[in-house]
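Need residues for this backbone.
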């Protein structure tokens, strides 16, 4: 985490103080609700900018705000499940669906799970890899349409025909 102009950094600061406060508040609420912080969760106050450390929080119920809300920050919940159908049902039970990721050593199984998840984009063994050639947008309460790719261009363009 650091200056985005330096190639070795993959995470930079959050965009503004309001977003920083949202992420920090969600992590604090998760801790107060019994969440166990595995890494991060303790931003360094003396660091300039709105850098929030990569944070993983375990032992949260599916309705915890860190799980159920789009927070657009580097704080991720880890949710236990007993079987795959249960995990997919929990993911699809959320009101949001911008992006999701499936992690597996079996690429075929990962694709099968990705096809069942209700999200605009589902990455396999990565997360957040946006390519401007590929449409990106959410479903449910996430987003306002598409961006990127031909479909994204069409969604913001209005064709006009002039005939003589």
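Answer:
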């Amino acid at each position: 985490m650091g200056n985005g102009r330096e190639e070795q950094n993959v995470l930079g600061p959050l965009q503004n103080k309001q977003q920083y406060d949202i992420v920090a508040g969600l992590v604090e609420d998760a801790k107060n609700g019994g969440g166990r912080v595995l890494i991060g969760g303790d931003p360094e106050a003396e660091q300039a900018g709105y850098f929030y450390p990569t944070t993983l929080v375990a032992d949260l119920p599916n309705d915890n705000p860190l799980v159920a809300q789009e927070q657009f920050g580097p704080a991720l919940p880890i949710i236990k499940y007993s079987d795959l159908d249960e995990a997919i049902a929990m993911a699809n039970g959320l009101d949001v669906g911008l992006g999701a990721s499936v992690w597996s050593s079996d690429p075929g199984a990962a694709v099968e799970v990705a096809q069942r998840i209700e999200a605009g984009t589902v990455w396999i063994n990565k997360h957040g890899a946006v390519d401007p050639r590929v449409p990106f947008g959410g479903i449910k309460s996430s987003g306002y349409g598409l961006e990127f790719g031909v479909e994204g261009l069409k969604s913001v363009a209005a064709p006009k025909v002039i005939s003589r």
